[in-house]
Amino acid sequence: MSAERPPCEQPAADDDLVVRAKTDPGSFGELYDRYYPQVARYCLRRLFDRTVAEDVVSEMFLQVTRHIRQFPGTTEIDFRRWLFRMATNAVNAHLRQSRRRQELWDAAARSRHWERSGSSHPSSAEHEVLDWPIVYQAILEFDERDQSIVMLRFFADFQCDEIAAVIDATPGAVRTALSRALSRLREKFNPVPVPASSLPQTERGL
Question: What global pTM score does this model have?
Answer without folding.
Answer: 0.72
